Amino acid sequence: MRFTDHGRRVVMGAFDGGEITSDAGGLLLREVAGRLNLFERMAACFDDRRNRKQVTHPLPDLLAQRVIAMALGYEDLNDHDRMRNDPLLKVTAAARPLVPGGAPLPALAGSSTLGRLERSFEEADRRYHKFTAQPSRLQDLYVELFTGSYATAPERIILDIDATDIETHGHQRGGFFHGYYEHRCFLPLYIYCGPHLLLSKLRPGNVDGAEGAKAAIKRVVGNIRRHWPKVSILVRGDSGFARTNLMNWSEANGVDYIFGLPRNDYLLHKARKIRSRAAMEFLATGETAEVFGDFHHQTRSGSWTRPRHVIAKVLHRSQTEQRCRFLVTSLDWNAPAVIEAMAQARDRAENQGDKPPRDLLARTIYEAVYCPRGDMENRIKDCQLDLFGYRASAHAFKTNQTRLILAGFAYVLMTQLRLMALQATDLAKAAPHTIRQKLLKIGARVISSVRRIRISMPDACPVQHIFFTAWRALASP
């Protein structure tokens, strides 16, 4: 093919470059998965009833192909009808040995085979669908990977719990109209500890936001304490999770909590002194007043069997109604997390030459302990948007649950890549999409011979130094 000349030079094009891939950075994902033994452990959470003598694609290879492809940006099953011949994905997703004589590796599984992997055995024709995922065991694997990422048990951890929506189309099972999100959706539940995903549970769109939260926290906490019996655990959530059963269970099992608390007239009345102090401060300075306070509160209905510690934040601004927010928590002066946060707050005040405020306890719990919960929203976006957790487009509910979990493992893979290999680079805090575009999407020529597979990446690759840094971190014993 001839194109417009470049000066005196003729410009020609042809499809004769050999085996070329656009995803050479996937080699790093392969190394991370190998360190975690990820796909073998995932395969142990499936029932595989195929005849072993007739298996072409082992279950770990199928899982590797699906999860790594999502990490590389291929979210749909039909992408694999063309990606199954990609030379790099064959190396990354297949554990089979090299073909004698240096012949090209055989093609990977197509979309129909991978579709059977996600399809539930109970919801399909049992003659053709031989796989059954065990979601509870896969969820437990999230926690095993989390605890395994620590060399020693931490003293304290914080679990963030939240719900979000996945829009549905057509008449998918479990999809219902939700008044808050204003469309038909599922309502998945997520639990994170920092960047680590611990739970991704799909729920129908017509359930309460806190439905199943107690059971989920109980399971996650139980799995964590099997590995770390003495770890101190704090559970954080918004006002949708300030439920009596969850708080009662936490108190009975030595788990601290801090939840948003819906505002009502009784709470506003009990916070009247804090509100008055904010109004007086505003009148004295003429500037926006932000005042914190705390008190003990018990519901009038009797749903709370005992008084609980409530934190109030009052914001008083010009020409607007006073804004009040409330938290309910088991934390007090003696909680280690509060002691540490208050010591840091006092040090900052002393370094700036300021006197610690009179509302230091309430301010510290609100700002230093509760407000960092907002970072969980970014982790949900990473999992939902960058790694395609929203692609719950199957008709069967269990199939969509499996897809959500597989997207969660793509998130785990990208998170472990960042934690293991990218901490000393510019991508130490990058989102999965940024890592994919800058580090994984590298064009390369794949040359197969009898003894080796050579991935030849371009000399002018702008992220060579980051790639070498990541390779050294993953190659070290």
Automatic annotation (TrEMBL):
InterPro entries: Tnp_DDE_dom, Transpos_IS1380. Pfam families: DDE_Tnp_1_4. Residues 7-351, 362-474 form the Transposase DDE domain. It comes from the Bacteria. NCBIfam families: transpos_IS1380. This is Transposase DDE domain-containing protein. It comes from Niveispirillum lacus.
